[in-house]
């Protein structure tokens, strides 16, 4: 069963023929991709503002599955409309109020239960991008069932309790990210040194802008390609180390 064609035109996005399929879990829809062999390791992918059907995020799900993990991207927006490239930035704060990356605990629990009970997963990690990076940072502070996390350019800013991570977490940033200043990254590093009791890593990729790590190969600019590929390898290495 093939996924529906994507309804978004986010600029010059190439279409992507997915390897996985869509499932219904409780009240959530999700996209699942499995490796060619059976495994008890799984990874949850937390999408960005463009939602769970966006081609770039499905490409990442398939990529991680190719490394030997049952990989799943649930619709954290619960059927509501994702942000699209034709929406107006002036409306973004209101949209974000109804799509809070700190309010993902219930969805995470539904997906964890599914992975354990229906897929036989014993060890589960999570990776997220932008909005999803913030969701990952939040969940790594709250949910001990997640063995490891990778947060791409998402910092939890509006909370005091943001440094006592429960399990190993890797933070990926672009040097030229207009939404996250280097000062914020240095502060994160400084505070994690003080408060964090588990392995963590922060890495800044030269010249990269917000959203760089989830581009599909045909959408990459040649100058950025080595950094994007490095970020992917680093993400997979972190997951392999702990999941």
Automatic annotation (TrEMBL):
Subcellular localization, per the record? Cytoplasm, Cytosol
Q: Which GO molecular function terms does the record list?
A: hydrolase activity
Q: Which residues form the Dienelactone hydrolase domain?
A: 29-241
This entry carries the following GO cellular component terms, namely: cytosol
Q: Taxonomically, which superkingdom?
A: Eukaryota
The record's annotation in InterPro entries points to: AB_hydrolase_fold, CMBL, Dienelactn_hydro
Location (main, coarse): cytoplasm
The record, for SUPFAM superfamilies, names: alpha/beta-Hydrolases
Family to which this protein belongs? Belongs to the dienelactone hydrolase family.
The name on file for this protein is Carboxymethylenebutenolidase homolog
